[in-house]
Structure prediction request, 453 residues.
Amino acid sequence: MVVVPCVVRQAARVGVRPGRRALAAVAVPPWPQRYQRQEDLPLAARLTRARADPDGHVHVGWADGTEHKLHRKWLRDVDPALTNPTSLQREATPEQLAAAHVADAWVDDQGALHVTFQESDGPSRVVLDQAWLALHTRGQRATATNPAPAWRPTPAPLSLAEIETLLPTHLPSPGDFAPRRIPRSQLLEDPLPALTAVQEDGMVIITDMPTCDLRDPDTSTQQPLIEATALAMRQFGQLQRTFYSDGLWDTAPKDAADVNDTAYTNLGLPLHTDATYMREPPGLQLFCCTAQSSDGGASLFGHVNLVLKALYEQEPDLLTYCFNTPWAFQALETNVHYHAMGPIFGAEAPQDVVMRFNPTDRAAMPQLTFDELEAYYHCLERLTALLASPKCLYHSERLAVGEMAVINNHKVLHGREAFVGHRNLVGCYVTMDEFQSRLRLAGPDQHDPRRHA
Prediction:
């Protein structure tokens, strides 16, 4: 999800769709109220001039005499027209960002920056508040004597040779994998095979999940569907509470005004990991199919090892960048603002690399300089294209009603094809600590007294 610029007025093409919240209703003022008057802003936050250059970037000047350049892709990326009005997730595609070209730029008498983009279907305009710009362009304003601020200390960068020691020795080929399939009854009787499958393969499919309330033949009592579903899910660990729900959630398409994530639409979703905006993203994600669409809706799964293999063989410099550069991600909800930073790849141990990536949940990164923004958007473009290619596809299948996919959210990316009709997956998260605890308890050493020493 994305920090929303405090917009002075709506961009020329931006309208609020029926039933949806206006962007201004959820934007948080970037400065204390005492700075909202033009005359009360510090000189460094008073915008005085702007012009577009032949490369499509914008040069701006401030009342304190400083001047700097704003990257054309960044200006398009923060355009409210390319932010979902209700989920506040970024909707700009790498293609849109690559094509961004500023035709004109100027500052009005209130200090607002007007930017006109020249596009194939005609010009579009965005208006950005000067105080918001001052707050979110600290990196682009950096000079040798005034370096960009660092959000937090970062460890010494890893060299490609050091990264090679972390990569798994066995890198699978796309399409070679078929997940193990375990009936729900077997899971309840002995969860170890299913837990082991997730630990070794990154995912498992549980079959014969209930599709209606269950009746106990011995006691003639009814077990509600939701309880029967949760019972199977809890074999992998206690369900994690999030701001989405106290445990279970569903992905049935919602009315436009109620959409707080693109998962609640019928749109296709690219491969990604979930909850990148948490310092410790959920360890497992579980999806139980309770209704399948009439057309489309296949579930897509990628694997971090396939991504590593493709980057190592084709773009080692980009692989190094993904290990060494923290990215910011966030989630915006009513009374919620989650934010976390971390590199796209991290190593838990040698041959144990995890991934954190969801392009729609990218947060503003004001500490990046102009040149660093170029590297940032290059990575976004190349990694997004790679994840959309067959090279990273671990497995795909159209889940049948009554089938549940369980994936390691740190290693297995997921997405879906667009669909027509009604489709619903009931799901939940489980922390990695919970899952590893269940795995140890179910393992062969569960009665070993040394475990309690």
Q: What stands out?
A: The domain at 23-136 is CATH 3.30.2020.30 (NE0471 N-terminal domain-like). Residues 1-35, 256-261 have pLDDT under 50 and may be disordered. The longest strand covers residues 284-291. The two ends are 45 Å apart (CA to CA).
